[in-house]
UniProtKB/TrEMBL annotation:
Residues 1-27 have a biased composition (Polar residues). One of its GO terms (molecular function) is metal ion binding. This is C2 domain-containing protein. The keyword Nucleus does not apply. It comes from Lactarius akahatsu.
Amino acid sequence: MSSKRFSTAPMASSNTVPKPSRTTQHTHFSHRWSSRDTSSPYPGETPVVILRMQVLSCQDLEASDSNGFSDPYVIVYGLGKRYQTPVCERNLNPVYESKDATFDFPIYKSLLHKPCTLKFVVWDKDRFSDDYLGEFALPVDKWFKGTALAFNDPNNRPFFVNLASSRRTTTVRGTVLIKSGFVQPPDSKGLLDFGQTYNTLILAPPVGAIVLEICGAKNLPKWPNMVHMGWDMDPFVEVSIDNKIVGTTSVIQHSRNPVWEKQLCFPLHKQDLSFPIQLTVIDRDKLSKNDYVGVANINIAQLIEIAPKKDPKTGLYPDIVLTMHEFERALSPIRYPTKVYTPTPTITYRACYQPYDALLQQARQEE
């Protein structure tokens, strides 16, 4: 996609920066998490299908205890459920009994717009505080390896997934062996076509794409350095949707008014529409944990509202040139939720939404 297909259209109404209130700042994250945790199917609704996930073993885990071993267990959560395997004491290659490590995740039609990602976290059981041994996420398009979707299909083989670390100061290693597959809900009538169910209901194509350019920030706070002899700020931006990171900028050293000019393009799925795109400004610290400076939300519904529209007669998009709209947003504090920055720090970005069928139309025209 060449740059000449982009145009920039500033929006005067979106450049106003409202003064953040203490109430808004304090409830920003609590509202987000509470709305997700209380989601549930309709009363009496039966699941469309059940995803069965089995944790068979782990291999080559990090030794967390002084005796050269760990006492690992695995937590699996997502789709409104949370499960845990037993603890295997003094073991870096634990093997779990199938009856203790096979978990069912009902999938309801009314909740298909919610994120369909499972998360696996490996912990070392400790007397006082469990130690983190790594994790991985399994989005809906990574649930299976191969074409066998039924859990009891002889061709459905287990597969390994590498552990990764979401903690910048923690190094992990090892793999987890899992098996996944669909099973018939107990109250369903007739045999399900698992392939059709997966493709039409769960593995839906993106509804569109977000084109985003992180321009810069202004008036970031003066935070004291480690020796408290002055201030330091090495900011970068993390872009995420529902806690899933979709992109980051570079780090600008020693700047309260950084300029990034970072361009991103990422798909948008139906389940993403329930959440804002979050721009989180972070102060990078080499010798300690990074500090969260502030966050601003991008309203996806607003971008969709100003996106290109189909011609009702032809069913085609008369203008598929991407028009980038510029916004400036105030940053709500994260480190001190009740604090109001003075002056108010802001972040500037340009963004647009492109419908999926408009992208297909553009691809056909460029062939």
